[in-house]
């Protein structure tokens, strides 16, 4: 993860941080089971065929292809998980995704109109992840999926918005 601390403004502190849920590894693990493990077996069979001088046509290539494809899919999932961060500070919300194609969403707390969390089904509730949608003034709407601890993220955003509103009313009354 890229450190958010390097991009904080004066008197800003990180209140809450989360990232993508581990569920992003579900499909890559299935691919590992169905293509990576057979790829290892094919690779072993292909190498043993070369050693015994009775090569089986295509086993070595099929094994290499299965392992290469599995490696690419797993590496992509790892990079996606490491690159995504969702941060709530005492002044802003900062959502960053992507490494090569970077997407950063930064909005001051006072410009947030609504924060919604979508958790459809038992699996979402059980594993505590979901989709988060933030609507800001000016019609800006940002949608992020597979966010770990999505309800807690929303709760921290709402708490900081309430805290900021109370502080601004107190300052106005002084």
Topology:
Blueprint: E1 14-18, H1 26-51, H2 59-83, E2 85-89, E3 92-97, E4 103-108, E5 112-118, H3 122-127, E6 129-136, E7 141-148, H4 150-173
Antiparallel strand pairs: 1-2, 2-3, 3-4, 5-6, 6-7
Q: The CATH topology of the largest domain, please?
A: PH-domain like
What is the helix tally?
Answer: 4
Structural class: alpha+beta
Element order, helices and strands? Answer: EHHEEEEHEEH
Using the coordinates above, name the CATH class of the largest domain. Mainly Beta
Proper CATH architecture of the largest domain: Roll
The value of Rg in angstroms is: 23 Å
* Tally of separate domains: 2
CATH superfamily of the largest domain: Pleckstrin-homology domain (PH domain)/Phosphotyrosine-binding domain (PTB)
Number of strands: 7
- Beta-strand share of residues: 25-35%
Overall residue-averaged pLDDT value: 86
Terminal CA distance = 41 Å
Low-confidence stretches: none
Quaternary structure classification: single chain
Percent of residues in helices comes to 40-55%
Cross-sheet strand order for the largest sheet: 1-2-3-4
Largest beta-sheet details: 4 strands, antiparallel
Global shape: elongated
């Amino acid at each position: 993860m890229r450190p958010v601390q390097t991009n904080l403004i004066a008197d800003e502190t990180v209140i809450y941080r989360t990232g993508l849920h581990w569920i992003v590894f579900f499909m890559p693990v299935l691919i590992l089971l169905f293509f990576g493990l057979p790829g290892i077996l094919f690779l072993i069979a292909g190498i043993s065929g070369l050693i015994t001088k009775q090569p089986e046509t295509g086993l070595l290539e099929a094994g290499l292809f299965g392992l290469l494809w599995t490696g690419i899919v797993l590496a992509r999932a790892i990079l996606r998980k490491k690159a995504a961060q969702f941060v709530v500070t005492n002044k802003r919300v900062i959502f960053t995704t992507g490494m090569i194609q970077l997407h950063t969403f930064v909005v001051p707390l006072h410009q947030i109109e609504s924060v919604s969390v979508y958790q459809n089904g038992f699996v979402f509730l059980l594993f505590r992840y979901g989709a988060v949608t933030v609507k800001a003034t000016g019609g800006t709407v940002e949608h992020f999926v597979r966010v770990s601890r999505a309800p807690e993220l929303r709760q921290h955003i709402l708490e900081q918005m309430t805290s900021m509103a109370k502080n601004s009313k107190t300052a106005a009354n002084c």
